[in-house]
Amino acid sequence: MLLGIDRPPMVAVERAVNDLCAWHGQRPPARASLYNALPRFEGHSYDRASLPAHVRHALYNLEPQGRIRGAQLAYYCFNYGTLPAVSFAAGLPWLDLYQASWLRGWRPRSRGLLNAVLKARRIR
Description:
The chain is mainly α and about 120 residues long. The protein has seven helices and two strands.
């Protein structure tokens, strides 16, 4: 549920986790525990070689081959990318953008742009 493009309702996520816990005979976690797990949840990763050229250019100090976490990709695109790279990052799945918002080292203008995307997509 968490790996989709749009953010699912947390009530639905909580219900699915509670059902899974009941199936396995475990005590379900509190809703706060679910929210605390979101920044550390294993999200998407992308093959750097298959990304568009304008996005690869924003990853200026990384090797051209390998994989990159979605949150790190969003961070690089918003902080160091051109308008096409920022547009690409704005369309990433919600979890990548949400996790990127928890990273440190944001430039103030880039952070503001990310916050605008989060608000427009109703992620935060």
